[in-house]
Fold DNA-3-methyladenine glycosylase I.
Amino acid sequence: MSILPHDPNKIRCPWCMGFEQYVKYHDEEWGVPVFDDKVHFEFLILESAQAGLSWATILKKREGYRKAFADFDYKIVADMPESYVTELLQDPSIIRNKLKIEAAINNAKQFMEIQSEFGSFSNYIWDFVDGKVIDRQLDSLQNAPATTAESDKLSKDLKKRGFKFLGSTTIYAHMQATGLVNDHLVDCFRYEEVRRLAI
């Protein structure tokens, strides 16, 4: 575990150390159970953009993505035309990868299909963990899995439904970020805080 020099009383998961934005994300968002579809969609866009890159890189471009993708309004994103894709390829505030940009638009359409079928994307995704947070009680980053049976099953189902750039590793990262899994290390100050939020 690492301790921030300016905050010696708080022990954190070591992966978040490096820059203040990363620490803030760890302290305030990562692992908190999410039931808001818009938040789920935001993370799906950001995580699909991460493929092959670091999460730190994506966090630094998060506001660029917010602006480029209409504050993560999936209804607007789903209707973005090809001409806008060309425009975004010139935007340095996001990852300028045509396939990833097109995937975001495609995924918005599939996202709404799931909403129509299940009432909400939240209903759909939480069903893969039986509506309960998986608490791994990790004592070391080395024990954290990159994928699980749940992420394999979810990723496979999303792929079947037409989603792109959401393999099992990416989906497990989504499950961690949106609190379907509590993967804070047990010594991290956020572990118990997030655990108390579990449904």
Observations:
- The longest helix spans residues 98-118.
- The two ends are 27 Å apart (CA to CA).
- Strands lie at 2-3, 11-12, 134-135, 181-182.
- The longest strand covers residues 2-3.
